[in-house]
Write a structure and sequence with these properties.
11% strand; globular; alpha/beta; 8 strands; single chain; eight-stranded mixed sheet; 2 domains; TIM Barrel
């Protein structure tokens, strides 16, 4: 038991090779031989912000929870993809590689219309599903993404300054610095959530002796913090964030416009990543841009997005059913996942992915993106052309074709063999006429 505990701790410590070695040992020792059928194509790791302290730890949790299709979906980075892919191969899980960032629709913002950010009209989270290559350093889209990330870090530094000033004014000097924040993520891809986490760690360091932890938090944050809040890390971070750094609060810093690409540019970034641009639903509340599915479909296809994404625990089963039924009629894949972008360890598979009436379509969608990844690698035959339009004009036929390739469940060794074949032979094996 002690050895297993040490192996589990090794999943997030040290270098990636050591983490992967620990995972291999745990998988070998596991008695979980049942077929893994769970679907979760949207989780964050510590490469952005997450309860998971490494991509390998996320894969272990998926393995122990019966996940068979698993997708990494970090904000603004694909740095975790290599480790994630190796971990999934060790665990016998089919891996999907994606990236997420925020765009700005200036017209929607001017009209006060919301997409999937309930507090900010015009702001729109978008996903590139099925990343198959990296950006070219120094070229246009790499420069745009770097500019976005730099703007986010400039804002983080300003928030740190305000938090220090606020805490000192309340009698709780914390001396928070940017290095405290960047240390919380392996490549410095820090978010506002990391800033809040580092601030809380500083407050915790003040506790002891005559200084009661609850008194410190109430003094430095406010009466919204309770004993129950302190006992729940995710609730604590959310409370501190809401009380100090959200709009209208003492340490709020307005977002830098450079942090948001235009809708066209962010979709262009995803095209350069070789991914399928995907619209993720807010789910709840139903926003102005999401309540009319016909209108939303016209908008997203006008922007050259060709798939939907649903998030468990914030989308009701009824809403998910409506969206999937609509998407099926249009030939749109629908992906589902759990995010895990707080410090709460929620279940890995939710009620949407478990629902017997929806699972078939969600599995077909998972196979679709796997088929896209395989065909891009083997034949440079991804779902979208270089112009960003579907390679097969009939969306339902294209969906069927790429799903059929993904459903073959080809092991990596077999994909490598097909990759070495001439194009005609590879097409025959994969059923591409």
């Amino acid at each position: 038991m002690q050895k297993e505990t040490l192996l589990i701790e090794a999943l997030w410590n040290g270098e990636s090779d050591a983490r992967l070695g620990a995972l291999a040992s745990l998988v070998e020792k596991s008695r979980k031989k049942e077929k893994r059928v769970g679907i979760n194509l949207h989780v964050h790791t510590n490469e952005s912000y997450s309860v998971f302290r490494s991509p390998t730890e996320a894969v272990w949790y998926a393995f122990t929870n019966g996940v068979g299709y698993f997708g990494i979906n970090d904000h603004y980075t694909i740095a975790g993809h290599a480790e994630f892919g190796k971990a999934c191969r060790i665990a016998g899980i089919r891996a999907v590689f994606s990236i997420e960032a925020i765009a700005m629709d200036h017209e929607a913002a001017a009209d006060g219309r919301r997409y999937n950010d309930p507090n900010n009209p015009g702001r729109c989270y978008l996903i590139g599903k099925g990343v198959t290559r990296d950006l070219v350093t120094g070229e246009r889209y790499d420069t745009i993404l770097s500019r976005m990330k730099n703007a986010i870090q400039r804002r983080n530094r300003k928030i740190i300054e305000l938090l220090n000033r606020h805490a000192a004014g309340k009698g709780y000097p914390v001396d928070l610095c940017y290095e405290d924040v960047s240390a919380l993520t392996p490549r410095g891809n820090a978010t506002e959530r990391h800033v809040v986490q580092a601030y809380c760690e500083k407050l915790d360091s003040l506790a002891g002796g005559k200084r009661n932890r609850l008194d410190i938090y109430r003094g430095a944050v406010g009466e919204a913090v309770s004993e129950a809040t302190l006992s729940d890390p995710a609730d604590l971070l959310n409370t501190v964030r809401a009380e100090l750094v959200k709009a209208g609060k003492p340490c709020y810093v307005e977002e830098d416009p450079e942090a948001f690409a235009s809708m066209e540019d962010l979709i262009g970034i995803y095209k350069e990543y070789g991914a399928v641009p995907t619209y993720p639903f807010m789910g709840h509340p139903v926003t102005e841009e999401e309540k009319d599915l016909d209108r939303l479909f016209r908008k997203v296809t006008g922007y050259r997005m060709y798939a939907f994404d649903l998030v468990e625990f914030r989308t009701s089963l009824e809403t998910a059913s409506t969206i999937i039924s609509y998407a099926e009629n249009k030939g749109f894949p629908v992906f589902v996942g759990t995010e895990h972008n707080t410090k709460r360890l929620d279940p890995m598979v939710g009620e949407i992915a478990r629902d017997p009436l929806l699972r078939g379509y969600l599995k077909k969608s998972a196979n679709f993106v796997l088929g896209h990844q395989i065909l891009t690698r083997v034949l440079d035959y991804g779902y979208l052309t270089e112009s960003g339009t579907p390679r097969i004009g009939n969306l339902k036929e294209g969906f069927d074709l790429y799903s059929s390739v993904g459903a073959m469940d080809l092991p990596p060794e077999r994909i490598g063999e097909i990759e070495r074949m001439d194009a005609r032979a590879a097409k025959k094996v994969l059923g591409i006429d």
